[in-house]
Amino acid sequence: MAERVRMSEFAKTQPKMNCIAIDGPAASGKSTLGKLVADHLGYLFFDTGVMYRAATLAAMQHNLDLGNEAQVSRMVHQIQIDVQPPSNLDGRTNDILLDGVDVTWAIRDKSVEENVSRVSAYPDVRGELTAQQQRIGTRGNVVMIGRDIGTVVMPSARNKFFLEASAEERARRRMKELTERGEAANYTEILAAMIKRDKIDSSRATAPLKPAADAVIINTDGKTLEQVFKEVITIIKKD
Fold first, then answer.
1. How far apart are CA 31 and CA 176, in angstroms?
2. In a 10 Å sphere around its CB, with 0-12 CB exposed, 13-18 middle and 19+ buried, how is residue 216 labelled?
3. Coil, strand, or helix at residue 6?
4. Cβ pair 146, 19 in contact under 8 A
5. Which of 11, 88, 195, 232 is the most exposed place for a label (fewest CB within 10 A)?
6. How far is CA 40 from CA 36, 49, 117, in A?
7. Separation between Cα atoms, residue 62 and residue 74, nearest integer Å
8. Domain coordinates in residue numbering, the chain
9. At 221, phi and psi to the nearest 5?
10. Beta strands 101-102 and 95-98: pairing type?
């Protein structure tokens, strides 16, 4: 525990690190853009949301009461989550390891999706997983995406971006994504869930969703992925 706390403080005092931070609300395009940027630069793609999914999965595997903050927080201090380049050509963007076990697809289960917001809102869970994210970020050559990367996880990232988009636009994107995967999708329900998630993320006491003071804010409404990608790459190359 002490070592992880030191890692958290260490990351905050580092000079600009070879890390690119991309933050923004759900379905703002972070994942798709981040993967493109990582592939272009030859960096590790790291969606920090997978850590909260993995922690939620671990709590469920331990049959914990997900509403019991103390139980869940204690458990998170006892696990280690790692992110590695993909080892399998099955559509994954990377390998997600929970105590050395590959849980890349298990964390995408609907039951995990339904509970991750609650687990990720616990301050002690966020604190512990922030330290684990920093452990990976300090390796360098990583594109890290999430909701508090530029403000909390990697404040020393060389480049910081914050993607914005209206809830309606993001709901349409999510519906299109689900439909293309052959899953049932209801726009009204997706939009309501999106607005609820935004409220949780932006109002939580610990690491609320907001752009870093030195982040480049990009509104993606009405922009193609290619346009946003070119904008981001141009900024990165200038630095």
1. 15
2. middle
3. helix
4. no
5. 88
6. 6, 22, 31
7. 12
8. 2-232
9. -60, 130
10. antiparallel
Element (H, E) at 139: none
Q: What distance in Å separates the CA atoms of residue 62 and residue 39, rounded to the nearest whole number? A: 36
The letter for the amino acid at 191 is: L
Residue 201 has pLDDT above 90, yes or no: no
What pLDDT does 202 receive? 83
- Look-up of token digits 């991309």: 22
For the chain, what percent of residues have pLDDT higher than 90? 72
pLDDT in tens, 78-136: 999 999 999 999 989 999 999 999 999 999 998 998 999 899 889 999 999 999 999 99
Q: What is the 3-class SS of 173-217, one letter each residue?
A: HHHHHHHHCCCCCCHHHHHHHHHHHHHHHHHCCCCCCCCCCCCEE
Contacts of 219 (CB under 8 A, 6+ apart): 163, 164, 165
Helix, strand, or coil (residue 101): strand
Q: Around 106, how many Cα atoms within 13 Å sit in the side-chain half-sphere?
A: 15
User: Is residue 8 pLDDT above 50, yes or no?
Assistant: no
Q: How far apart are CA 132 and CA 136, in angstroms?
A: 7
Residue 45 tokens, joined: 């793609």
0.85 exceeded by pTM? no
Q: pLDDT by residue (tens digit) across 207-219?
A: 788 999 999 999 9
Rounded to whole angstroms, the Cα distance separating 59 from 114 reads 13
Strand 44-47 versus strand 17-23 pairing type: unpaired
146 close to 163: Cβ distance less than 8 angstroms: no
How far apart are alpha carbons 25 and 181 in whole angstroms? 22
